[in-house]
Amino acid sequence: MMMTQAAPIVLPTKQFGGDHDYQGRHRVPLWQFLVPIIVMLVVIAAVLCCIFHRRIA
């Protein structure tokens, strides 16, 4: 279930017009690419911590 949500983020350049746009006039800084991934990982980690904490406690 978690993996299906993470799959579309693997190839963002294809969704926004292809690799040539990404490397040309339309260059996206690296932090704009990494921030959504980091936020998603933090949210998933928080959810997993809550689940395991409830099971242990």
Walk me through the topology.
Blueprint: H1 2-6, H2 12-15, H3 19-23, H4 30-56
Instruction: Give the oligomer, counting copies of the same chain as homo and different chains as hetero.
Output: single chain
Helix content: over 70%
Strand content: under 5%
Largest sheet descriptor: none
What structural class is derived from the secondary structure elements? mainly alpha
User: What overall form do the CA principal axes indicate?
Assistant: rod-shaped
Number of E strands: 0
Instruction: Encode the helix/strand succession as letters.
Output: HHHH
Radius of gyration: 16 Å
The N- and C-terminal alpha carbons lie at a distance of 25 Å
The number of helices is 4
* Average pLDDT over all residues: 70
Low-confidence stretches: 6-12
Walk me through what this model shows.
Keywords: Membrane, Transmembrane, Transmembrane helix. With 57 residues, this protein is mainly α. The chain has a domain at 28-57. 72% of the residues lie in helices and 0% in strands. It has 4 helices and no strands. It has helices at residues 2-6, 12-15, 19-23, 30-56. The model is unreliable at 6-12 (pLDDT under 50).
Quick structural overview:
Keywords: Membrane, Transmembrane, Transmembrane helix. This protein is about 70% helix and about 0% strand.
